[in-house]
Structures are given as C-alpha cells and as structure tokens.
Specification:
The chain is an alpha+beta fold. The chain is built from seven helices and 18 strands. It has a single domain, classed as Chorismate synthase, AroC fold. Helix content is 25%, strand content 22%. The strands form six sheets. It has a five-stranded antiparallel beta sheet, with helices on one face. Strands 9-8-10-16-11 form a five-stranded antiparallel beta sheet. Helix 1 packs across helix 3, helix 3 crosses helix 7 and helix 5 packs antiparallel against helix 7. The chain binds flavin mononucleotide (FMN).
Length: 353
C-alpha cells in the first residue's frame, strides 16, 4: 500500500525525507497552458521557510526548486508536473542520540512499530520538511484558481498558546511580521512570549485559520465526496495537526439553531457559521477552515521515554526545532486549501461541465 499521494483528479505525490538528498513532488492532472515559473514557486516557499526569524527552527534551506517535468516554454504541458529541491542544510549528527530512542509525542515509536525500521535523521519522512512540496504544489493550484475562478486564499495565525491574535483583522499586516499575525498590536506580545518560551526550552501549540474567497457554489459532492470532508482530511494530514473546524466548528455545540442557520435574503446569507459549505457542497460563501497544531514534541527538556529494547530512558532532543510549529503553518494550510479546491473545481467540471 502507498499513501504518498492525495487528490482525485488533481493528484499530488510527494517524496523525500528530512535528511535525504532531496525532496520532490509530482502533480498529475494539472491542465495544460498554465504559465508557471520556478520564481513564483520560490516566493511561496520563502513564506514557509525556517530560519527567517529567531522564533523558528534555524535550519536554513535554500529551497531552490527546480521544475524537472511538465513545463515547456513557461507553460504546463498537461503531463506530470514534477519539482525537486535538494536538501542542503541537514545536520544528521544531532539525531545520533535518539537513533535507538523514541521521542514522546513524535512519530518515532509508531513508525518503528509499523515498519520495524526508520530513518531517524530529522524524523525522516515524518518531518515537516515534506510540507515544502505541498507548498510548491499549492503555488500551482493557487495560480490556477486565481486565473480560472478569481479565488483568493489567505491564512493567518489565530492563536499562539494563550494569546488570541485575530480579535482585530488587519489583512495587510499578515505578511509583514514573522508570525502571519493579523493584529500588529499583538506582535510585540508574541515576540516576548516566544523569547521566554525559547529560553525555557519548552514548546507551545497554535491555531491557524484560512479563508478562501470567491469559491464558486457547487464544489464538492454527496456523500463521500464532500468538500468539507476532503478539507478536513487535507488539514489533518499536516504534521502536528490535532483538530480541524469548518466555519463555527466546535462552537456549533453551544449554538442554538436560530443562531447557527445563516439566514438567507435576496442580498445574500446573513452569517457564515457553515464555513461556506452545506451538504458537502460549497455555497458560494467564503470557505473558512481552522486547524489546531499541537506543541512541538522535540524538546531539550529531559523526559521519560523508551528505547528500542523497551528500556526506560531519559530522552533529550538536540538539533534545531520549531518552538511553535504553528508559526510556519500558515502557508501550508493555504496550500492544502488551494489543492483541495482545485481538485474539486476540476471534478465539478468533469461531471457538470
Ligand atoms: C511547519 C512545521 C514544523 C515542524 N517542526 C517540527 C520540529 O522542528 N520538531 C518537531 O519535533 N516537530 C516538528 N513538527 C511536527 C512534527 O513533524 C510532527 O509532530 C511529527 O511528524 C509527528 O506527527 P503528528 O504530530 O502529526 O502525530 C513540525 C510541524 C510543522 C507543521
């Protein structure tokens, strides 16, 4: 069985490990004639990159993406679109001490239980290095959606640990701080919090939201092809994702029907608790998804764990790690939103025309 691919008619396969020679992806099903350049993809990759501020992992990858197939004279040919990025800043010796140990909260134990063998260097395939290729593929989907449907996708950090960051939404400021925070007034508080956190050696969780505007009504299908089900699956497939909400999400639990139902008038819907999806099909409203990310599990603070012989050991993780993975997750959730929406737009066209 192989689960390195996702999507229905727009199918994305990724490959590569954190400390392997390269990572890459193959996009199958991309329509021909889309103008796309490595520079456009690099712009998206730079938004996701680590080492841009003191608040993220200090691994510095060039992410010098090469398009190795599927583009001729600057346009997609309709054949498999493949991209490749060399890993240039891996430090595998940092992982020597956990070669035979399982970091609590990471994928080490389950990979070993399943396969009986694992690439321990930087987490191997379980590393979020893989998400680089989702962002590369997402750049293609984003452009296609913009040209064909005027869809615009924007993500933001909604909460970091105890700090709620989106009570005030200043869309312009999201790209102008290291957190993708929409409220410039929260940025100094985030910096102070993260500086203290980094010194303590601990980590923290976060919530990242994403909105897609101008999504045409009609994307998604009953009953096993629901747009919200595919979005939830896509977001949950991101490393460290622990929860996904569509629209009002878990707040729906305490809402009354009269409050939740998004009344309709000739001028449009009066709310968007549905998050733009009804019956698994987009309504034409903004599609809104929220994803919870857990705190990073690789910590230099010692903890109790097991080694491969089942012996209790003290685990200390060395190396360069993100103290809050949510800080870098915004471009990743945007990419997953773009890939799912493009897939569903193409599916809709295939069935309905
Ligand atoms: C952008 C991003 C960066 C991450 N960086 C780290 C990291 O530096 N160290 C770490 O232990 N986990 C990191 N993670 C999380 C792990 O990849 C993840 O916890 C691990 O694969 C286990 O999978 P699970 O948490 O989904 O169960 C990161 C996740 C994301 C989305």
């Amino acid at each position: 069985m192989s689960y390195n691919s996702f999507g229905h008619v727009l199918r994305v396969t990724t490959f590569g490990e954190s400390h392997g020679p390269a990572i890459g992806c193959v996009i199958d099903g991309c329509p021909p004639g889309l103008e796309i350049s490595p520079e456009e993809i690099r712009t998206e990759l730079a938004r996701r990159a680590s080492g841009k501020s003191r608040h993220t992992s200090q691994r510095r990858e060039k992410d010098d993406v090469q398009i190795v197939s599927g583009v001729f004279e600057g346009k997609t040919t309709g054949t498999s679109l493949a991209m490749l990025i060399e890993n240039t800043d891996a430090k595998s010796k940092d992982y020597e001490n956990i070669k035979r140990q399982f970091r609590p909260g990471h994928a080490d134990y389950t990979y070993w239980k399943k396969y009986g063998f694992r690439d321990y260097r930087g987490g191997g395939r379980s590393s979020a290095r893989e998400t680089t290729m989702r962002v590369a593929a997402g750049a293609v989907a984003r452009k296609w959606l913009r040209i064909n449907h005027s869809v615009e996708i924007q993500g933001w950090l909604a909460q970091l640990g105890p700090i709620r960051t989106d009570a005030m939404m200043d869309w312009e400021s999201i790209e102008h701080n290291p957190f993708f925070c929409p409220d410039p007034k929260c940025v100094p508080e985030l910096e102070t919090y993260m500086d203290k956190l980094r010194k303590s050696g601990d980590s923290v969780g976060a919530r990242v939201n994403v909105i897609a505007r101008n999504v045409p009504a009609g994307l998604g299908a009953p009953v096993y092809g629901k747009l919200d089900a595919d979005l939830a699956s896509a977001m949950m497939s991101i490393n460290a994702a622990k929860g996904v909400e569509i629209g009002a999400g878990f707040e729906s639990v305490s809402q009354m029907g009269t409050e939740h139902r998004d009344e309709m008038t000739a001028d449009g819907f009066l709310g968007n608790n549905a998050g733009g999806i009804l019956g698994g099909i987009s309504s034409g409203q903004d599609v809104v998804v929220s994803t919870a990310f857990k705190p990073t599990s690789s910590l230099r603070i010692p903890c109790r764990g097991l080694d491969m012989d089942g012996k209790e050991v003290e685990i200390v993780t060395k190396g360069r790690h993100d103290p809050c993975v949510g800080i870098r997750a915004t471009p990743i959730v945007e990419a997953m939103m773009a890939l799912v929406l493009m897939d569903h737009a193409m599916l809709h066209r295939a069935q309905i025309g």
